Structures are given as structure tokens and as C-alpha cells.
Amino acid sequence: MALRWQDFKSDVFVDWCPGCGNYGILLALQMALAELALEPHRVVLVSGIGCSGKTPHFVKVNGVHTLHGRTLPFAQGIKIANPDLEVIAIGGDGDGLGIGMGHFVNAGRRNVDMTYLIHDNGVYGLTKGQASPTLKLGLKVKAIPKPNINEAVNPLIVALAAGYTFVARSYAYDTKHLKEIIKQAIQHKGLALVDILQPCPTYNDITTKEWYAGEDRIDPKTGKPVPRLYKLEDVGYDPVVHDLSEDFSKKLAAMEKAREWGDKIPIGVFYKNELIPTFQERITQRIPFYMKNPPAKQKICDDAGSPITDVDVLFKELKVT
Amino acid sequence: MEKGFNWMAGGPQGSGVDTAANIFGRACGYGGLYVYGRREYHSNIKGLHSYFHLRVSSNEVSANVNDVDMLAAFDAETVVRHISEIVPNGGIIVDQNQLDTKILEIPTLPIEFKSIFQEFMKENGIGTRLADLLEYVRNKGIHVFEVPYMELLKQIASKLNIRELNKITRMINVLTIGISFGLLGYDIGLVEKAIKDIFGEKPKIVEMNLLALEVAYDYAKNNFSKDFSYRLPERVVKEERIFLSGNQAVAIGKILGGCRVQTYYPITPAADESEYIEAHEVLSTKIPGVEVGVVVIQTEDEIAAINMALGAALAGARASTSTSGPGFSLMVEGLSWAGNNEVPVVITYYQRGAPSTGLPTRHGQDDLRFAVHAGHGEFPRIVLASGDIRECFYDAVNAFNYAERFQLPVIHLIDKALANSSQTFPVFDISSIKIHRGEILDEKMLDGIEYKRFAFTDSGVSPRVLLGTKNGVHWYTGDEHNEYGHISEEPHNRTKMMEKRMKKLEAVNREVPITEKINFFGEPNAKNMIVSWGSTKGAIVEALNELSREGYSVGFLQVRMVHPLPREYIKETLEKAERVIDIEMNYSGQLGGIITEKTGVLMDFQIVKYNGRPMTTTEVYNALKLVLDGRAPKRQVLTYGT
Ligand SMILES: Cc1ncc(C[n+]2csc(CCOP(=O)(O)OP(=O)(O)O)c2C)c(N)n1
Ligand code: SF4
Ligand SMILES: [Mg+2]
User: Fold this and answer.
1) Average pLDDT of span B72-80
2) Is the residue at B239 inside a domain?
3) Among A179, B91, B236, B570, which lies 20 to 30 A Cα-Cα from B632?
């Protein structure tokens, strides 16, 4: 029987604020898991700390709710130990781009085959609305006493520079689009980032649902709002690196696109490259049986509990008599 | 006390001091001798002073003594630094070309050292040159062997047709080995074997070094044959023996114990362990055709290292990370998560001189309390402290067993003196080693039941399911959680969950045999009881044996499981004693404090050291003797070492 998104609902009460963009993300994720027909026990959602960090508790697959900023190290450790698992890391923008920025960059260098979803709401939701690293310079969201004094980081550009091999952006309230992007990210061979624009109605009164929808700019001809978001696939943008020789130019094109903000904001896949070896492939170069017999599945003792690893060769190297 | 023969090689960092010690140690090992060797070096790559202090004996040796019987000095600084350690009748091998060196103008000697040494020179009327200093010690009965290093190197160069002398100056180390063994009249064949084994893969280097050895050996025979009477008691042994460092012992223990993911961020003196494992990442097993592999990951920082290891452990791999003080400081939040989520993970913690960056390459046992208390909140953990290189090996296996049986983080405390010292042992017996993985439910056992990761149980340990197991979907969170692993702030649940976790310490107390927690030496009901932990063991046991022979009533309680502390046993043993003597390599006597806290027993005497150099048998013996004779102050601070 085909799986439905409801099959991925846990019994835990979802305690986000009414109208929070996270609801859209949760639904899109559950739909993606269902459509990909992933067996719940094979999926692990790993999250950091924040409103976003609670997501795993609401989904009926394995969940590891970790520390603030540490979702990526945990997720990589899980995937490296058992590459058969479908690992999806989740975190807030503060989590991944503030306290966790070191891991964000270094994960790109490894290209572990997994997915990373960032709930990008411009604020620290769970600590009551301070500026997050994606809030633009000079903006004053509701709860902060003074306008933001720091420049914003652009997660897509950082990811491209760091070596992520799939870089995409989507929108929390376009569940259909987001679901498709999440599916592609999961299916991508390599580390996939999805930066999810997520309105936080409680603390971010600037990049709101209405703002993304363009309700502040009514087309005089139609009398309708002009939405700010547009889809890369609608403008014939090709994110795929078909040959390594075009890698750099594709990255530059993606960065160029990623800079667009304000009146026109692109969503979709900015960059995709499956020609870079994953971390799994790199380990296999050194440990040929790694995929067949990964660390988590290796037998380490016999039925009587005696260790089976042969260390005689090691002792032999050290032998003096 | 059988002091054995004590050889020291010293020179600027990068000049092959380690290699020299390795060759010397192996050559002695091949001759059926036991060796203990300690490596000392600056936090520097090239140029600053480093040395290796090797003790050779026909019996197992596990610490240094104060003496140096023969000093192989690659440079003038080595002579100056170590001159006072050489015994009367001992020897110094020194470069003839360095005799005119002005002692106080040696640029790498720090001013703190110079001002003390200047005083010494003045007091003893020693002139300004190295030759003057050598003359002074010659009058005290020390043999000075002046060797023209450059001329010998030139001879070697011409035999090998090498024009550039700088290509072979690196062989000063082997020259001094050749001189040393020539003086000792040792079987040159064994030294040649050591060179071949160490440089085996580089035939050109082997050839050059063998020639250097031969030239120097003959030089010593021809020029000084009658001057030095010491002979190494070489003999043939059938038993298989190994010569290894603490880093290597831990690494092999981990590999055997089933560690399959090791994460690390480079730091002294821990990194050598991870590099050793990485170099041996693929291994065969006793099952034909089955190979195993350890994935070693160099992470971006220690925060990633601990958390990646935790992830790997949740997936079911035996996982560990290795670090020292600064790195462990960064791991503390992850440790607390592991405690809360009952994750079996092993943290190998190599202490070095602290606080802060401290003495990055020097010894210290300053972090016992940190290891025991680190982390916000209260959660169960085990802290193990190995006393010697052999224990490092067995404890590395035990650490994983405890971690998985009791589902908690295990901190395995080592220190620089163990990590970087090398010692000869009969090959470790692995026949009785067992692996205990604790209770793990598989797909079949889970069929038809509702799995709760943190189910309340009598022992506090809830059966584990590895991520990815069919029928076993489950959750973890660093928030307080209910049995399912979902967030819960309910007071009733909180109380029960705290008790469930903390109860596991009682299980550790109950189930781990005392023989794995405490080593006892000497007289069981001794009047004088020593307590200590970690690498002081070797020096204490040797001193104790000597004192017992002299008729003193002494016992030594070496605490190997520091947390949870085997309180009852310690209390009983110490309460019977007239004097309790705490010996530690830190300022405040941290174990003594913990013992008092947990048992009410006070430490009557304290012998501590914190100058960055490990305790020697000699100084422990002397300090203990003062205590036993009733002549010691409450607190003695030891200071030996260069
Ligand atoms: C080490 C640490 N520092 C600070 C906090 C407090 N804290 C909890 S959530 C959070 C910010 C969350 O913001 P973000 O990651 O953007 O997630 P959001 O709530 O917006 O989804 C902070 C700073 C913490 N949990 N851990
Ligand atoms: S604070 Fe913002 S991000 Fe958090 S739940 Fe409320 S609306 Fe959502
Ligand atoms: Mg946020």
C-alpha cells in the first residue's frame, strides 16, 4: 500500500506558534518521505536546537534532537557509521550559520551523502526573536531593541564556496515546491542544502508571508499582489554540472542568482554536481568493503565474546624478541 | 634498588633524538633487555632542546631514575642541560668541535635557565667554555668522550661519495649510538638489526646509517676501549616481547576492542594515537575472508569530534575520540548530551601540563577533577585512569565494554608520561579479553512490541536499539525526555528519569569487579598506605619494593576507576593505616581530595609535583623514606627534571 504523509505523523503535539512557517516545512517533509516511500526505520532526522529543532519529534521516523549548532557533526557521524541510513539534518539559521558555521563550512569539504534543511527565518525564534545571521544589516525586527548591526550571510553562497554539491532554496508555504526540492535533495548523491525561507509570524515582522507574497505591491492593472518569489525552473535556469570543466562557471552563475533579493527572489535548485566523489566513495577508496560492511554493522566479536580483530600484525611490527 | 643502565640522548628538535632512542631501545630489546624510555620535547618543531631518557635492565622497568650513566650529546646545550644528572663514573659523548662554545651564549638556552646555571658556574669556579665545564666534571670522575663528529661524518661522506655534508649531518644521532654501543662493547649485530627494522623501507638510508654506526663503533673501540667498564647484560630470551608507547597501546586496545569510528582534532599528546589507527585502518579477522576497518575522521574541531562520535555510536559503531585538556574543554557540552541520552562513547583524555595551553608537550595530571565533574548537570559517567602502558591497552578495551554495558560516556584518562614513553613488555595476553556489548534489541526481538528507548528498568539500563533497526523507530533529545525520547518537562517524569540514569552508577559499583578498579601493591595491612593514580604507578611500585625490602610496612592503592570511586574498598583499606600518603602529579592532590570527600579519610601526607616532568623512582623513594622515618613535612613538592 502506498504510504501517505499521515503515516509519518508522530503522536507528539506540535507546539509551534499558530501560522508558523514550520508547519509547511513539516508537511512538505512528511509528503516527501511518503512519496519516496522511505521506510521509517531507515530514516534519521537529526536536528539542532531552536523552534526548528523540534521537528524530529513530530515525524514518525528515527529522531535525534542534538545540541545548538551541532546537527551536522551528529548527522555525519551517523551516516558515516551506517551509510545505509537516509540521514536528514535539520536546523535553524542561527543553529547552522551562527553557532554552527564552522561545521557548515567543513561539511561541504566532506560531501557526505545526506540532506540538510535550514529553517531560515531571520531570527532566533526559540530565544524570543534576536537577530539571526541571515537578517540583513540595519533591519529591526520586532523584538530587538536596535536595528541589526551585522551584515547578513548568504547561506547559498557560503555553501557553494564550501563544496556542497546540491544547493537549493525553497519556501515554507509553497509546500508542493518545497516537497519536490526536498525529494531531489534526498535523492542527490552528495551533500544537499535546502535553504527554506520560513516566515516567523511571532518575531519577524519584515520578511513575512505577506511580504513574500508581495501584498505591499499591488499590480495596478490586475489589482493583485506581485509575488516576490519566482522559480528558477520557470526561467530556464540549468543548475546541473554536466562536466567538471564547467563546474566553476556553474558555481559563479549560481552565486550570481543567489545574490538576487528584494523585488525578485529566486527559489529552486541553484547548483547540482554529482561528479564530486562523496565521502562514502572516498572512504571506500581506502577501505574497499566499507559500503558492504560499514562500521555500525561490523562484527567485532564471536559468539563467546572474544574479539575477532587480528592484532597480531600490529604486535609483530613492535616485536623485539 | 636495581637502577639498570641509564642512557640519555639529547639534541635540538628535528635532529633525530627520537630515532636514536628508538634504535637504542630496540637494540637493547633484541638483546633480551627490558627498556623504559621517556621522551621530552618542547612545543616547537625545529631547534629547541629535546631528549630521551632510557633505562635498560634485565628486569621489567617502568619509570626513570634520576641518574644518567651515559649522555649522548648531539650538541653543546645537551651537555649543559644534563651535566648534573650524570653519575660519577658515567660518561658523556660530546662533539670535539663544540668544546669552545661559550656556555652562556648558547642561543636556545632560556634566560631562566642561564641565570641559575651562571650561579652554579660561579660557585664552582667554572670557566665560560664548554671545555671548562667538561674539565670540571672530569675531576669528579665522569668520563668525557670527545668525538670529532665532523671528521667522522666526512669519512662517511667520502665512502658514500656524497659531496654535500649537510645531507649527512642528520646522522649525528647514529654516530652517538655507534660510540655508545662501542663503549659498552655491545653486539653490533643487534644494533644493525634495529637500524634495518626501523628504516626497512628505505635501503639508501639503511646503508648510510649502517656505515655511520660501524665507523663510530670502531672509533670508540679504537680510542676509548678501556675507559668505560659498564656492560649490558645481554642474553637470549625465548619469550615474545614488544616495545611500544602508550599512544600505540591505546590504539591497539581500541582496534581489538572493536572501535570502528575514531574522530579527532590534532593535539599533543593525543594525535599520535589517531594517526596510528589511521595507518592501520584495514585489518583482517580470525574469520577467514572477513576484514574490518576503522574509519578515522579528522574533524574541524573537538566539538565536531565528540558529536560525530556520538552520532556514530547511536548508529551502533563502537566510537571514540581522543584529545587533551584544551580539546576536552570544547567537548563538555557533547559529554553532557551523551550523559543525558545514555550514549556509549569513549573519550581518551591525554592530560598534559595545564591550565590553558599550559605545557603543551609536558607532563601533568591536572585534570582529574575536570574529568570527573565536567558537564552541566548531573549524569553518570565512568572515569578510568591507567597506570602504565599495559593498562592503557586493557583499559582501552574495558572502556568500550563499560560504555556499552552501562550506556554512558567513559573517559579514559592517560597522560603525557604514558603517551610518549616507550616500554618493553612480554607481548600482551589477549586470550582472556571479552567484548560485552550490553543489551541490544534486534528486529526480531522488537517485532510486535512498542519500543521505548528510555524505558524505566530496575538497573536503570534500557535495552538499546541501533538506528536503522526495523520495528525500532526511536527518538533522542538533549531536553529532558520521557521513555520514548520525546521532550518532557513533567516533574514526575523528571524525577524518575534522573533516578533511572543515576542508578546506573550503582550497577557499575555492583557489577565491575574490584580487580578492574583498583590495583594493590605491597602489604595488605600496612601501616603506611600510599594512594595515587595514573603514570606515577611505575615509580611508586619500584620505590615501594625497595622500601619493603628495607623492612618498611608499606602498601599502595592505585585507583584505576576514579569515578564512580570504589568507596568501600578504599575506605576499609585506608582506615586501617597509620599514615595515608597521597602522591600525585598536580598541585592540590586531586585524588586525595576526592577520596576524603567520598570516604571521610584524610590524607596525612602529600607528595606532589607539577614542574611538567614525571616523577622518578629516585625522588619518590626519597620522599617516601622521609615520611616513613617521621622526618617529612605534611607536604613535599618534587622538582627533579630538565
Ligand atoms: C550552546 C547554546 N547556546 C545558546 C542556546 C540558546 N538557544 C536556544 S535556541 C537558540 C537560537 C535558535 O535560533 P535558530 O537556530 O535560528 O532556530 P529557530 O528557533 O529560529 O528555529 C539559542 C541561541 C543553546 N541552546 N545552546
Ligand atoms: S517563534 Fe517563530 S519560528 Fe518559533 S514557533 Fe513561533 S513562529 Fe515559529
Ligand atoms: Mg531561526
Assistant:
1) 98
2) no
3) B570
